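[audit] Reproducing an earlier prediction to check determinism. Same input, same settings, fresh worker. If the tokens differ from the archived copy the diff job will pick it up downstream; this log only records the rerun itself.
[audit] input (868 residues):
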Amino acid sequence: MTAIRTTCAYCGVGCGILATPTGPRSMAIKGDPDHPANRGRLCSKGTHLGETVGLEGRLLHPMIGNKQAGWNKALDLVARRFRETIARHGPDSVAFYVSGQLLTEDYYVANKLMKGFIGSANIDTNSRLCMSSAVAGHQRAFGEDIVPASYDDLDAADLIVLVGSNTAWCHPIVYQRIMAARAERGTKIIVIDPRRTETCEDADLHLALKPGTDVALMNGLLAHCRREGLVDATFLADHVAAPEAFWEALERDHDLWSIAKTCDLPPADLQRFYDLFAATPRTVTLFSQGINQSIRGTDQVNAIVNVHLATGRIGKPGAAPFSITGQPNAMGGREVGGLATTLAAHRGFGEEGVAEVGRFWAAERMATKPGLKAVDMFRAIGEGRIKALWVMATNPAVSLPDAARVREALETCPFVVVSDVMADTDTTRFAHVRLPAAAWGEKDGTVTNSERRVSRQRAVLALPGEAKPDWWIIKEVGRRMGWRTAFGYAHPAEIWREHARLTTYCNEGARLLDLRDKVALGNADYDALEPFQWGGTPFADGRFSTPDGKARLVPVVQREAEAQLRDWPMTLNTGRYRDQWHTMTRTGLSPKLARHREEPQVEVHPADAAELGLEDRALARVVTPQGESLFRVAHMPGQRRGEVFTPIHWTDCQSTGGRTGLLARPLVDPHSGQPGFKMTPARIEPVAVAWRGFLILHGSALVAPKAPHRLWATRIAVPNGALYELAGEGDPAALDAALPRGQRIEASDPSRGTRRVAILQDGRLAAVLFVTRDGDLPAREWLIGQLAQPQGPQVLAGRAPGAQVDPGPIICACFGVGLHAIVAAIRGQDGVDVAAIGAALGAGTNCGSCRPAITQLIAAETKEAVHG
């Protein structure tokens, strides 16, 4: 069949994909070599998108409570309850919480309904959690939310500074582009991150600064540039406004030694950073969640932007501050006003902006002030001020900080609607109405990536069951609420054209977001739309989107460090894993993506672990003032002492532990409202268990074992079934309740507290349960391969007869290459390098995100060979 050109569902890189249907619910995936964002490359998540498009766990019909309903009944109920709530309590008593997973057309209709017709700005997005500090920083500096960079700048830069970004894992295709520039032109790389991540492996310099000291670091850099005469006085005079006493403030306490002490950095490393920056006019500073997810995130953004403005490193090839977004359409949401603090087409809530958007929409009840940001929104729900909530394409019961309070709010909210692709998530469990939405591979519309490039997302598969596009669901509710004409859309192209017209309305060069050349696209032209980038090279002419055309230097001051608390001596940092996405409702279905990090880990420096009695691979409890959760311990020398790291992905649907959302503080940046996920006071303590084990089930068993006394149960997708890693207290015999019916084969060793049980159905393996109190457990790989295969008692050995090769932890998810295979290949070659490993095993030759790990293994094996 013919390949369909579409766009990846994951991060903000916006990779083009060639998807070829291979069956009713299957497709082959390749990178699109003609898409300018990725030029044919895909990361591990994009490569395995085809494993996530089945119907396992899908919500296929509207549900009212636990009963299936028709669309008319469900939509009428939603419209009626929202109308009644507004009539009784006013428009601010309702709210929408939406997502960067929505397409621009979906986002536009939701924003129009809430702000233009319901009359409230209580619509916010989960993008508030990942990039709203960048938005606020851009608006303060440029007068408009503009990312003044493109991926081409990475090709042209002589120095790339990565700040708070594990690019190798979180944006692998961008990282490979950086590595290509390094190989071609010798581009220097500096990584600024408290953790030593895989991104640091190829860096010329890693600054492991103290968390929360980025403002001091960048202010110190700016002070150094001024002392050394590197400030572009002409550019400043013509194009940048500085407030009174801006420069005088930098003269105090911004010398090398003071900054090194504040940031806890060696002065020699700090001087090298200053020297590299000073000597390299073509510099791109690429920043991500380590900057944004802070209660000082906006100031940290402006500290970076200040340096680029003052040195004239903006609006030129290879010179720009570059905010790279987390979600596939976070940028599209920003364009149509998906945030509670903005209006469509980069307008704000000033009198003029409100009037313009109101006229354009012929709005009946135009919102006149900003709405509640995400954390405040759910606080208002808990306080009873918001009485009807519609959640679209996101999972706030997991992802928002202080998630226990969020769940309490959802539990008490009188009316909760959730539009989602999955039937059972931590959030849908609180829904009074569930609406089945189209998933990736079924959607039709546009997305905008981190470099302002708009791409089409096209449907590859038919809509399953009664699923509908989000824009259709929203417009149908709008029509039932009484606004039939305003929401009369029949095709996403109609929505796109309206959005494009709004960007041009009353816009004679005041805003760079201007899509006038796309206003007249017919449906066929829209269907065939090629990727394009709006805004050209922003600020190349030195004009900014402010009333006087000048950018603004924004004074920012380093805040005093928080006092160390006796009961909370550690600092918790959070973030992504390489092969997982958000709350794993999609990537968690892929057996290949599950193998890199099978369980949620707490990463601890080995010296801290020794002091606290935390054994590697044991269990530990992470506790904060907000809550607690269990994690598997991982000793990581790349952690700073006194700091721990946990992943954001695991939910109650997948694990009894790993619930990072329960731990983070609900404190937010005062300008952007973005939560500070990176610096939560915490403590960590070991957890003893009476037994350990695992359960492997054939089929699509999605529910973790409901056995009493289990402390730890984490579900891992495997071919043909699911693996549960288990640990607990009490009598492990209670785990038998999780076994399916069938012929039972069992062996036990009471002296070691070991039991091994296999269940056969029609002679084929349906389940195995291995438990031990004192002994070892076999590797899981061979047993997983035996699911649905004819078996006898020999399966209880846990391995095939003869010698077995354990592949070890998966390093390369693209090709399923394990640690032991890579180590064997290293030991079998002289002068081995990453390219040689790729030639031998394929590892590292697709997305390249495992290349830093292979580099580490080569270095470790070389050191071992030298020192014996």
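[audit] rerun output stored. Observation attached for the diff report: The chain has 28 helices and 34 strands.
[audit] end
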